[in-house]
């Protein structure tokens, strides 16, 4: 499984809904330098940043 597939799966687990996950993954975020989380997750470092953001959301720290 590549980083994109991993972040998509993780987002679906966090949001509990594929459509909500896709929406979050495809919206540009300032935290990602104006890129989408999905664009950012093409590298291991970017994937880890996106995963950390999802963990903050999971624990109630939405941004």
UniProtKB/TrEMBL annotation:
<dbReference type="Pfam" id="PF09722">
    <property type="entry name" value="Xre_MbcA_ParS_C"/>
</dbReference>
<feature type="domain" description="Antitoxin Xre/MbcA/ParS-like toxin-binding">
    <location>
        <begin position="10"/>
        <end position="60"/>
    </location>
</feature>
<dbReference type="InterPro" id="IPR024467">
    <property type="entry name" value="Xre/MbcA/ParS-like_toxin-bd"/>
</dbReference>
<protein>
    <recommendedName>
        <fullName>Antitoxin Xre/MbcA/ParS-like toxin-binding domain-containing protein</fullName>
    </recommendedName>
</protein>
